[in-house]
Structures are given as C-alpha cells and as structure tokens.
Fold each of these.
Amino acid sequence: MDLPALKQVAEKLVAPGKGILAADESTGTIKKRFDAIGLQSTETARRDYREMLFRAETAMKEHISGVILYEETLYQNAADRSGTPLVELIVRAGAVPGIKVDKGTKPLPGFPGETITEGLDGLGERLDRDREQGARFAKWRAVIDIGAGVPTWSAVKANAHALARYAAICQAHEIVPIVEPEVLMDGDHDIERCEAVTRWVLNTVFEELFEQRVALEAMVLKPNMVIAGKKSGAKNSADEVARRTVAVLKDCVPASVPGIAFLSGGQSDEEATAHLDAMNRIGSLPWNLTFSYGRALQHAPLTTWGGKVENVPAAQRAFAHRARMNGLASLGKWEGALEKAA
Ligand code: 5MM
C-alpha cells in the first residue's frame, strides 16, 4: 500500500473550504429524484444532469474536493463531439473522482426490519477497473434504522464488519475508502436516542476498522449528524445538534482520521449548512469537518434545471450557491444572511 499517496487523497477530500458532492444515486434513487421533477430517468437524462453539475465551473473549482459517482457515470462520456469522459470534467475542475462500490442494502436474515449492505464479492477486481478509469476513492454506505427494538447488536456488528472489510480491501487496491455508517433520521426518536445509537455504531465501526488493520490516516468518515428523528416533531437548535454531534465524534473518532464529511440525510438545505457551520464554530477539533451531501447540494440545482436545457445556467448558479454556502460552513464562516443574497 502506498500510504503517503492515499493520505494525500484523503487530505485533499477534506481540504478546508471544500467538500464532496455525492452524485452516486443508484438507478432507483435517481428515478425517484427525476420523478419529483416529472422527468423520465433515461441514461441520456442522467448524463445531461450530471454533466451540467460537473461543468458548473465556479462550484466545482472553488468548493468541491471530490465527486462520488455511480458506476454508470464513471464510465459515461459527455455530450460533446469528442465524447469527453465525465471523469475528465471532474479532474479538470481540480476535484477527485470517486466511486460508490456497495451493492445496496438487503434484508438481514433473522432480523426483521434490519439490513446489511452487500458488495464484498469481487470488490478488489472492481476497484482495479475503477482505478484504471480514474477513481481514487470509494464509498460504502451501511444503513442503521432506529425503532422499537432496533438496531440490534447483530445488525450493528455485521454492518460495521462489512464496512471495515470494504475499507481494508480499498486500501490494498490503492483506493481511499469513505466509510459511511448512516443512522437514519426517519424515525420518531428524540435526539438523545440518536446520540446513543450513533455513539454505539461509531465505536463498533472503529473497533472493526482496528481489527481489519485499516490505516485511519488514509480514510474519510461519512457519518450522520446527531439529530432528532423526522417524525418526532422535535426541533433542536443548530448549537445543540453541533454540540452533541461533536461530543460523540470526540468520543469515538481517533485524531489520526484526517477528516469527517457528513451526509445530509434528509435535512433541509439550509439546516445541513447551519449545522455544519455551528460545528466548525466550536473550533479546536482534531479533524477537518466538511460535507459530503447528496440531497442538500442537489435539491436546488435539480429543481431549477427541471430537465430543460434553457435552465442550465440558472441551475449551475443554484449549485454554486449551495456549494459556496457549505464551503463557508466547513470553515465556520457561514451566515444566514448570505442565503438571501442568492
Ligand atoms: C446520493 O445518494 C447516495 C446513494 O444512495 P442510494 O444507494 O440509495 O441510491 C447516498 O449514499 C448518499 O451518498 C448519502 O446518503 C449522502 O446523501 P444525502 O442525501 O444524505 O446527503
């Protein structure tokens, strides 16, 4: 393993003022997003949409450190006459291309309502091909739900083990792993329950990473924030979300991890930005804290675009605005007033 090279990529992904664009929606998920704007999800429409994002120069060059791609996009070409690979657009903008390598969640046998993320079989060979195509980092998402009697220890352990096996395989194939254990915010639980489950999950994940001998300095953690479940009706302040999230991370994440890039998990665009900003304002943290948002970066450009070519400039501006807001939040320099200037 070329540890210095891997460390360099990991550090670049969490560079101050920048963050990651999660554009790795699987075919089913992107269909849902396109359904919401009344657009059919064809291969061409998916290409056009993603190409529009990667060609948004201001956003990409100034605030995006890396882009997580779905396999289709990693091997897709732009619409221009020379058929520029989409990966090249990302590299030209100075960002690092990455690839989602998990094969999604499947029911965990014996544990109703719980899932296990699959995709370890043949992973090394896939990573070699993806690296050849330009990918320098990968992502694997484990999903933990909160509800009556869940999560169980078995589900937490099985998912943490798979994440650690994935991370070890990535590093052996010269790819930086993004380790994403997502505790869902869909339930009716309060913020204390989310805090307890997130602490449990992260402790288990780092135990497994240690057992699999994963080099912590050459990975990025992508966790959820500590937040009350959507159906609880509770609304905690940004300062409380930040304080609880940072406390859990300090308890569980070794300082050798270069950075933590949060998922947005269904928060509104502005909430996701405000929470990240509040965390960075706490200061004196051992790791860089930034974003790896899917919905909270893409909701505005996707709805502005609506599948219409004449809306491309406005959609790119909407993307640049969210990217800039989150870039500022990664420095603890965002202010609500800046949103109105959009
Ligand atoms: C972009 O969505 C990613 C892929 O989801 P599916 O496998 O369900 O299609 C997802 O893993 C994403 O990277 C993270 O959840 C972060 O996205 P959000 O929208 O939570 O910021």
Amino acid sequence: MCGIVGYIGDKNAATILIEGLRSLEYRGYDSAGIAIVDRRKRLFLLKKAGKLKALSDCLINRHVSGHLGIGHTRWATHGEPNEANAHPHYGNTRDFLIVHNGIIENHHELKQQLRKDGHRFSSQTDTEVAAHLVEKFYKGDLLKAVCRAIGCLKGSFALGVICMHEPDVLVAARKDSPLIIGLGKGENFIASDVPAILSRTRDIIYLDNNEIARISKDEVKVFDAKCREIQKKKVRINWNTDSAEKAGFAHFMIKEIEEQPQVIGRILTHRIKSKQVVFENLNLSRAQLKNITDIQIVACGTAYHAGLCGKYILEKMLRIPINVDTSSEFRYREQIITKGRTLIIPVSQSGETADTLASLRAAKEKGAKILSLCNVVGSSIARESDGVIYTLAGPEISVASTKAYTAQLMTFYLLGLYLAGIKKTIADKTVLNYLSKMKKIPALMRDILKNQKRVKKVAHEYVHRYHYRLAEQFKFLEDEIVQFQDPVKALEFAEKWARLSHSAYGRRFGDFPFLYLGRNVNYPSALEGALKLKEITYISAEGYAAGEMKHGPIALIDEFPLVVCIATKSAVYEKMLSNIREIKARKGTVLSIATRGDKEIQKKEYSNYVLEIPEIDEFFSPLLVALPLQMLAYHIAVGLNCDVDQPRNLAKSVTVE
Ligand code: AGP
C-alpha cells in the first residue's frame, strides 16, 4: 500500500526522498510524488502517474534543492492513478502539503462541509480533505492544526505534513496505518517502513495510534491526541541493508526463495536450546497456556495458508480444536471466545495487515489472549498482542511471500512442540524424534534448490506451449481475413480479433488455467501454490482439496489445464494416485510433486511432468513442497516477462481494509 517518506535536515531532501521511495517500491503503487521546501520558502512539487522512474527521470538535469520534504508512492483506493490524484495534496493554496496512507472514511461529509466554507477540491482522493482541514485550522502552529484536523478524521491514516509558513517543521501522525520516525544527527526522517531510511539511520521511534510528532532537524517531540507531550522509546534496528537488496539475484523473489534453508536453520538454532523449544516474548504464563482449550488462527493470503497448515500441525500435537479464518471474515462474524480458554493466533509477515489487526482487536475486546506470529519486529500486530513469536525470516521485499511462509510453518511446528510440552500431549520420545527430523530440513531444502534446472525446464516448456497456442490463434485470424472480399468487413473482423487476442494475452494463459490439488497437511500447500502462481503470472489458478475434485473442478479437465498434484509419500498417497488416474482418464495434463525415488508416479499414465522432493516424514513435508511450487511460479513468471517482484495491483502489506 502507499509509502511515505519525509526528511528534514541539511542535506538534499530530493535525493533522500527518491532513495527512500525506491526502498518502498515493494509495497506496491501506481503513482508517486514529492514536495520539497527550501530555506527561502520556495516550493517544488512534482507528481507522476506510473512507476517511480517517471518521477526521478524528471529530476535529471534539474537542480532541486531544499532541506525539507515529503514523498509518497500511491496505491489507488479513491480515484484512478493519475497525476491529479497522486500525493502530496494541498488545500486551497499550496501552503500546506500532505502525504497520506490509509482511508479517510468520512471524507465525503468532510468535503461537503469544507465546500460550504469555500474550499475547492482538485482531486478525487479522500486524502485531499486532510490538507484542507489543516489549512482551515492553521493559526500559526502546524502541530496544533494537524492535531485538530485528525480529530475530525474517521478511518485510518499515517500522515506527513509540511507548511510553507514553518519551513523548519515536519509533522507526522498516525492511526491504524504504520509510521516510523528515523533519528539522525542534525536530520530526522519519517517513513512507512524501516528499509526506506535504513541507509541513513538505525535509530527509530515507532509512532503508536493517535500519536502526533513535531519534528525539526535537531529535535523530535511526540504528543498524544490532546497535544500533551509523551515520552517514547528509541529502538535500534539491528538488521542491515543487505537483506533489503538483491545481492546479484535477478529478483528479490528468487533471492528470498534461496534464503529458505538459512532462514529455517536460523529459526531452529534460535528456538531450540538443549533439546527444548524456547520463546522469549510470550508474556503468557505456563498456567495460562495450559488452560487453553481452543485456538483461533486469523490471517490473510499466504499467512492464512500457513495458518491452515498450522491447524493440522497443532491439532495433531495438542488434540484440541483449532479454527482458522481469514481475518476479513473473522472480524465481522460472531466470534466465539471463552475468556481464559481461547487463544487467538494472528499470523502476519508485515504485522500491519488491516484486517488481521482488526481481528486481533475484536478478539481482545472479548477477553481473548493474543499470541501473534509476526515477521516484522515492532509492527502494530506484534505490539498490540499479549505475546509475540517473531518468525525470524528477515526482511521480505518481494510482494509474493516465500521465506516468510516457510518461516511461519516452522514456527507452528515449534509452537506445537512447546505447547505439547506444557499440556503433556506428546511423549518425550516423540518430541526428540520430531526435533531431530526438523534439524535435517535446511539440508533437504538446499538439495531441492540445487535441482532448480528441472523446474526451469518444466516452466519453460509450459510457457512455450502457451506461446504456441497464441501463435495458432493469430494464424487463424490471418486465414479468416484472407476469406473476406470486402476490405471494410475484413478490417472490422481484424480489429475485433485483435481486441480478443489482446485481452486473451492480457489475461495470460486464459486457455491454460492451473489446478493445484493436495490432501491433508498438503492441502494448504495446494492453495499456496495456486496463490503464488496467480499473483505473479496473472494465470488463473485454483487450489483444491483433492477429495473435492469430483464435486466440481473435474469439469475443468481436458488437455489444457495443468493439474499440479501434490503426491508425495504419505498416508494419502494412494488417494492422490487415484485422483491422478481420474484426471488422466479425461486426457488431463499432470505435474506431480513427488518423493524422490517414486518410480510409479514417473510413469506416463500418471505424470506428464514430475518435480521431486527428497524423502521426508509427511508431517513436515509442507516445508519442502513449498519450494518447487514457489520456483515453478517464479520461472513461469520470468518466462512470461512479468514484473515478478511488483505484480500489478498488489501491495506488500495491505494496510487498508
Ligand atoms: C503473499 O504472496 C501475498 N502477497 C499476500 O497474500 C500476503 O500474504 C497477505 O497480504 C498477508 O500479509 P501479511 O502476512 O503481511 O499479513
């Protein structure tokens, strides 16, 4: 979602803002803008639709100086992604400039009110009302004006505000959208996320809800909603910029896929001490955990799939009911929570997902204890939970989540062991057996990554098949045109076909959908495989529990869809084989994810393509199955020339509902 950067100091603000916005590109956006003020109170405002390059290209050979500025990448919610709707926004005059992340829900009413007072609006955004409100309330003190303005806003916001009358002040405020303050020497920053300022400072302050900050180059003061000063803790970031850089890889996604053995190894080293699982920030006593009778997992997207797998893991280890819900559903339904008995586990890479945060708050209000699984340290979900288990994946930049997913899975296995230890639901011998199997996983992952050539080959064959089919369509078009004697009719026909073919191309693989099937603990793997493919290739893909195939999806089967069957050795292996036989009987094309050495599944009557994983206890197999599925999606996306790290319309962290 939208990215915010702000700077005040002695350096060139434009350079710092562009650099910061570049580090926030991963969040997803469709337009960008900056506003810079210099000491002579001159304003430079530039906004562009499209990628950041359009903005930075305009700055080449142009000397833009200024010590104060705000910058923004916009992910459109209200109004299309054009220059007028891009941020920064201003009021009636260009004296007050504002960047915003979030949604101002009552913007309509506010606009009507402001119009009556003579305010004129030049964009379709919800944000613009905030600039007009600040302008309206300004009586010589920007902090106070922002404070009054945000008092009128309903919804969520992270704001950066500057004003031509006070060129030595940057004001920041937040409610339900992330915002941090970076502390430098003789300079200070604001940003939506740490990577935007990490090359400049490691000392940050996390703004909390309803807090507002007055920032000058030498001082940062934070206030509550009533403008009373409060003391905030400074936090030191101890990860470095390398983890937020591509380090020679073509894309962040493949870098993050390749990092998985290292991430899983790190989690195991950190969490297993003397054959015991340890967590440091649980803030829930053993007695409280022992009393838990049911668990509710809430999450979105990939984190939801990890949560679904977590259900299989925890049910097997704890033998208590585990429910999983997408956060956007959970927050609005009747939540059944027994005080002191129900444990809520929100799962989130970013820790900022709006629906997951809202679910957490709803459950907390009903007296539930919250133990979150988060990757980003200090994120809102982490801070608002009773306890947090950090998933230790390191910064994940690619929009498509990979290493954060397997880190969440591994954390569920460890949490299961930890709780089982308290509840005495697994024998000590089994715990040791599990631990020794888990320790082998990084090496097994490495082994899969070594065989990437095979995945590439399968992906390329598939891309080739698609291009071939497209070429056939065009051939058909040519033949039809030749048949027309009337050139006008021929042209009409050609245009129609060009449009159709173009939209087929735009939809990519319209004729070649993917179906992912899995059972039991690998049913969530099927969902995750399908999500990975669709988000980065725009190919239509569905994940299904294989047992559900006969209840609908089998109608899709002919030679065109590719059916990815997760058929590794397990208690449901025979069931998967019988699903595959049913697909093949209908001329289906099957790609099997199989256990190495399985000769049966290699046979033509079962698989057109096979991707192997090494032998592993089926209970832990989702950790390995994820890798070929991620790589398959990645290599198809590369073959189709897709924007792998920043797929269209998607944002890394979804901070609005
Ligand atoms: C994953 O590939 C997606 N981009 C997306 O589904 C993501 O997992 C979801 O938005 C949840 O994000 P979170 O883990 O940061 O809460």
Amino acid sequence: MLYDNIEIKDGRLFFAGADTVKLAAEYGTPLYLMDENKIREKCREYKSALDAYASDGSCAIYASKACSFGGIYRIIAEEGLGADVVSAGEIFTAKSAGFPMEKAYFQGNNKTDEDIRFALDCGVGYFVCDNFEELDALDRIAGEMGKVQRILLRVTPGIDPHTYDEVSTGKVDSKFGVAIETGQAIEAVKAALSKKNLLLEGIHCHVGSMVFDSDVFVRAAAVMLGFIAEIKKVFGFEVKILDLGGGYGVKYYEGQGEIDIPANIRQVAEYISEKSVELGIKTPSLRLEPGRSIVADAGITLYSVGSVKKITGYKNYVSVDGGMTDNPRYALYEARYTVVTANKADSPLGLTADLVGRCCESGDIIQPSVGFPADIGRGDTVAVLTTGAYNYSMASNYNRIPRPPIVMVKDGKSSVAVRRESLEDLLKNDIL
Ligand code: LLP
C-alpha cells in the first residue's frame, strides 16, 4: 500500500506491524498512531544524505510544528537532528523532554519580549531573526541578561515554490523575513552586524511546504548564495550557515507526485559547493528543516464509524467520532488523504460517501467522496493514512471535544506517548 509500514492481512489493516483493529479496541478512538521506526528511518535518510554530500557541520533540523510532543524531541535528539521551535510552548516541551537546547532554532515572525526572554533563559542555540524590531529587542534583552546570542537572519528570496498559497512563504510579499529584492535584507544584515549582543552566523529562508519540484531548493540556493556574496562584498563578512528551510512534499495518495529526498539533497549540496567557488565565498554549512517529511507517513488516525446516512439521489455520509478537531487539513486546504476501512480492508468498495466528523459544522469533512465497503456501519474502524504531520499539532477543542491520544508503535508493540485528554482536562482553566 501507500507506504511500507502499511499492510493488509486477513482483511485487516496493519500499521508498523500492529493490528490496527486491535489497537482501536485497546486504546479507543479516535486514536493517533505513530510508527517510531519510520520517524527514525526518515531522520537517518536526511542525516546520511547531508553527511555524504553537504559541507562539514551541515545538519537537519526537525520542524517540530509538524508534530510536537515530549517523546518526539527525545527521538529527534537521539537521531542527532536539531529542532526548529516556534513558540514558548514548543521550547518548553523540547526542554522538558531533555532536548539539548543548543541544537534548537527559534523561528517566528513575531516573537514577544516574553518569548525572547524565555528562549534565552532556556539556552536556545539560535534565533532565526525575522525583522528589524526583533533584532532590536533581542539585542536589548540579551544585553540585559548578559548574553551574546547566535542568530540566523530570515530573508525572502522571491521564489515561488508552486505549492498552495497557505504554505507559500518565500515570495517577496510574505509576512516572513525581510526581502532581498527590496534592499531591506541587506539593511537587516547591517543592523544585525552592528548589534553587540548578537552574533550573526547565517541566513535563512523557507520557500514553502509540499514541494515536489526538484529545482525549487536549487533556485532558492542560487538567490541565497548571491546574497551571501553581496554580504561579503559590502561588509567583508563571511556567512557561515545557509539554512534553506523545510518543505519536501510527501505522498498522501496513490498517483501523487514524489520527490527523492536524498537525491535532491545531493543535487542542492553539489550546487552549493560549485556555486560558492564560482562566487568566491566559503562554502556555507547547510541546514534543512524538514517537518512533514519526517513524520507524515509515520502516522495514521483511527476512528469508529457511527452513523451512515444515504440521502437518496443526493449523497452519502459516513460519520466518525473525530473530525476537523483532530484533522483540520481538508477544511483548511482541501488536503487529500487515503482512507481504509481497517476491519474490512479487503472488502470490495460499494459505497461512495463523504467521511465526516462529529462537529456541529458542515465544513467538518475529513475527506470527500471516499470508497467504503457497501456494508459499512456503526462500530467499523476507519483509518486515515499519512496523518503524522500537522494533525495532532493543529488539533483543537472545538465543540469541547477532547484531543485523541498518541500511541507509539514500535516493532509491533504499542505504548502511550500522549494521553487522551479527559473531560476534566477541558475544565482545567475554567473558573467554575
Ligand atoms: N521551516 C519553516 C521556517 C517553516 O515555516 C516550516 C513550515 C518548515 C520548516 C517545515 O516545512 P515542512 O517540511 O513541514 O513542509 N499546516 C500546513 C503546513 C504549514 C507549514 C508551516 N511551516 C499543512 O498542514 O499543510
């Protein structure tokens, strides 16, 4: 099936070697499952490609916004990756899980003074500074705290990654970073170099997510290396680190495009070393910030079917016990997924229906026009595949629905990584 951690045996869906129907019965639904070996495999794929092809010191940084919980920072740390963190919440989670904070990169376009102080206090390795106000605030607060902080500067290279608008961030009119094209980026470098409590080490860009086009990162690298050469010319300053952000696309359904990540890393890394020689700059060490491609296919979501509504002459609905609260991606981006009826996985498909959730909202669609067995009904288990990225991390308590647990599966064995939210959890901040 879609990935090598998915198989069908005796009519049941197996994930990471475990029977999903049994797991649904054991832990209840809705349920996020995560395949620990798959996460590790993906980390190693990045690490070995960067070790083999990129300049010394290059490394991958897991963009933890894709899926952030204590246990994942432990896995990432064990695999030797850095972590991209975007809020005090992610920083706190990483630190609490024992993540080495000198390998954390703090991103974001609007860090408050409080965030800055907290991140400095936690010993975050790098700030990825987004704008002039942040440079001022970070310099001031670092000074008050008697620290000198290493930074990267986020710039927009003016690259269109040909993906959907909500995740396209490298264009000149983006809310993120400072634009090279307008001359603001070189001004920001000047400002960064003038701050006595900041140590500028590199420049950063992130062009977008779900990138399949193999030359997107090469085009971004071309602009960024040109900018590094300009920095050298104007200020005589050698940029040490080039961070090209995240964005590799993943396959959500059969027939969707694919990108060979190690081959692309090789292409980008070779381009960077050749171009650096041509431009007369030192080859910068490379950072990549994969989020989705580390965790997406390491996750699936299980639901129990409740009602099956057949509106004769119109359409059909299969309702499950989760919905846009645990997976808002169809509602937000019309994102496509592969759906399998886990306990009838090799039954012929005889009913086309929208897979919908339990929220009081018509937009609560997990996936439209899904094929189900004709006899699908209450109590059946439905699996949505490739939900490891941007599902748990974007889940909400809309309609006061508790968030599902995350159960880790490793070599066929399971353990709870995040407990199911209880009704009491929902009340914990309410003054009654
Ligand atoms: N680095 C930066 C600075 C980012 O903003 C992002 C994603 C990444 C790395 C990781 O990109 P990835 O490898 O995961 O594509 N909620 C949307 C995705 C938003 C991506 C935001 N930034 C979705 O569900 O599709």
Amino acid sequence: MRSLRVGAAQLGPITRDASRGEVIDRLVTLMRRGSDAGAQLIVFPELALTTFFPRWYLDDVPEELDSYYETEMPGPQTQRLFDEAKSLGVGFYLGYAELTPEGKRYNSSVLVERDGSIVGRYRKVHLPGHEEHEPDRPFQHLERRYFEEGPDGFGVWAAFDGVMGMALCNDRRWPETYRVMALQRVEMVLIGYNTPLHYAPDPSQNPLQSFHNRLVMQAGAYQNGTWVVGVAKGGLEEGVESLAQSMIIAPSGQIIAEAVTTDDELLVADCDLDWCKHYKETLFDFDRYRRPEMYELITQPKSEQ
Ligand code: CDT
C-alpha cells in the first residue's frame, strides 16, 4: 500500500478587487488545515490567485488585465506559499495565469513538493470559450483571447512517491487528457476548475453541469485506473454562479470525498496509489488489450480527418 493523504482545497468566490495578499491568506489557511489533518499534498483550483477574469472584456483596461498574471513562480507574493509548504512539509498544486518573459500568456499550474521545490509545470491544452467580445452574452468566457494553447501536452512527474499528472478545467471533459497521461503510467491526475453554471452557446446544458462534472472525472479515473482530484473555485463570483462539487475519485471510479459547500472547504482522503494496479493490470491492461492500430484516426491532424 502506498498511501497519499490528499487535501482538495476548494475555494469560494474571489472578488475583482481582492488583493493577492488576501487570496494567499485564504490559501495558507487551507494549507495549514490540511497539514493539521495530516495531508501531504494540497490541491487548489484553476486561476486560484484571482477572480475568474476571462468573464470580462478588458481591452479598455489593459493594466487590469496584466495585473491578473504572474510573471514569476514563485514571485514576490507567492513565495509565501512555497515557504509555508516547506515549513509544514506539505506539497501543493496551484492554478494561475502565467505571463512569460517572452510575453506569452498561459493558463497554467505548478506542482510543488513537500520541500518547496517545483516538480513540474503544466499549460492548459484545451482552451474553451471565444476570442472576440460577444456583448450579447450575460458574461464573457474569453480564455481564447487571454491565453495561448499550451504547447507542451500532458506530462507526468515522479513525485509524492507516485506518478502525478496535471490538467486544468476544460481538459477534464476530454478522454485524451487522461489517456495520454495513463500511457505514461499516471496514478493521480490533479485538476483545478472554474465552471460557470450558465453555458451561453447551449443553455440546455446548464442543469447538467453537476452530472457532466461527475461523469467525465469518474470515467477518466476508471477507464485509466487512476486517482482524480478535481477542485473547484465555486459559488457566486461577481454575479456569476460557478459549480463547486470538488471531489476525490478512486481508480474504481467511485467518489470517495465530495464538497458539500460552495465556499472555501477542505476535503481530505487517503489515496492508496497501489489501488491503480487493480485496474492497470486487469481490465485496463494497456499492453495486453489496447488496439492502437484501430485508433489511428484519433491522432490525425484535424485537417486530415
Ligand atoms: N475554465 C474552464 O475551462 N471552464 C469551462 C467552461 C465551459 S466552456 C465556456 C469548463 O469546461 O468547465
């Protein structure tokens, strides 16, 4: 048995005017609570340092837009999270907006070990929403304006005595996300998300948000024999209601912990990484049963399909 005690640190709303310091105070509080509960890894949401700014068209206020990005990780403000992690001996996953020295913007996450060292970085592959201002929507979803598509794909990292993977929000809806990591023997996939309950292109999906959230993450876990930790920033943020329902899912596909609020909340669960073997070495024994020669279409460039 390789047991990893994980804390899923759900966040409630972050207001538009919240300072980094205020938000980091909340993250540190959750990290300390996790440490008190014996957690070795704390998982925070996507864009966990700021309000979900892609809901606004911000061309008129470029300085506000820039203020939402981190130019360093750790930077002067986020260093506190790394110091706290090191002194508590607790690792963490954190979603944030990244602005690189070359001026590229990504929706990113970082995985930090219990000694405060960076294990890996991930840049969101599947960017949802739209590029241009669509004033008829009740709110914008301008991820495709404010970020570039992550160019690095889905890596995995040897950390926390297991094989860890990262994804962000919309990635969780795509089976390829989990499968590409499972082909690298992933044992735990960490996924932060911000999911507005209202989906403007097709509001018939609104009442299904909660169902779809469970559906995709439970299927991803089971079909790939991996733990999945999905962590929301939920609740009513600047007039937009977002799904909470953070959860920790076993390789069996069973939910073993689920949030009951739409606010800051910590779920703690013991995750036996050896549980993955039950699935990876039987029903989903990839070497024995997969038929990649039958799946060629999946890897063809879009224009050739
Ligand atoms: N952050 C993020 O990726 N949210 C999307 C919202 C739906 S697309 C407008 C999601 O897949 O949950």
